[in-house]
Amino acid sequence: MEPKWLEWAKQLQSIAQAGLTYSKDVYDLERFELIRNISVEILRQHTNIDNKIIKELFANETGYATPKVDIRAVVFKGNKILMVREKNDGNWSLPGGWGDIGLTPSEVAVKEVKEESGFDVKAIKLIAVLDKKCHPHPPSPYHVYKMFIQCEIIGGKPKEGIETDAVEFFTENELPSLSIARNTESQIHLAFKHLHNPQEPVYFD
């Protein structure tokens, strides 16, 4: 579970963002801007990140605040799972990234696999829809829903991407160092449950 200070900061940010979107009164707008600044300061105090960076990443959106969607592709070859090594932290993850406007979740999964690993795939099954705060990821300024979509290889060959520098398949008992901001060991084990039991129900929350 995420720390309380992060939960409060995100709640304050959400309240402020909605208020700044829908309020007309100049005094209310000032108050909501103050609430937004408090949320930024909470995050800065606990992370030592510069306020300007936090505002750009954490308090830069408009409109009603909603969760972001992170989509991860689960691709098996035999009893091994496809993973890519992330350039920015040197650790491994399932191919994936933020959902794209105009694309369905399965289209995003297919696109991300191609861009990050070189393989052509087709999406065949939804494995899980998770709330990131309920799983052992590092604290995140965003409220994120994670979708895991199983895909099947139909072509292509291993190829590094712009954000990845290695492509490999791993057995469940020989997993590499994971990029836990993107996926956790328990989530990889959940994926293997679906490999071993195709009738496994979709996991949520």
Quick synopsis:
The chain is built from five helices and eight strands, in the order H-H-H-E-E-E-E-H-E-E-E-H-E. With 205 residues, it is of the alpha+beta class. The two termini are 12 Å apart.
Describe this structure in words.
It comes from Psychrobacillus vulpis. One of its GO terms (molecular function) is hydrolase activity. Pfam families: NUDIX, Nudix_N. Keywords: Hydrolase. This is NUDIX hydrolase. The chain is of the alpha+beta class. The protein folds into two domains: 4-58, no CATH class; 68-204, Nucleoside Triphosphate Pyrophosphohydrolase (Alpha-Beta Complex). It is built from five helices and eight strands; from the N terminus they run H-H-H-E-E-E-E-H-E-E-E-H-E. The protein has helices at 4-22, 26-47, 51-58, 105-117, 185-196, and strands at 68-77, 80-86, 92-93, 96-98, 119-131, 144-156, 164-171, 203-204. Strands 1, 2, 3, 4, 5, 6, 7 and 8 form an eight-stranded mixed β-sheet that branches. Strand 1 and strand 2 form a beta hairpin. Helix 1 (4-22) runs antiparallel to helix 2 (26-47) and helix 2 (26-47) crosses helix 3. The longest helix is centred in the first third of the chain and has 22 residues, at 26-47.
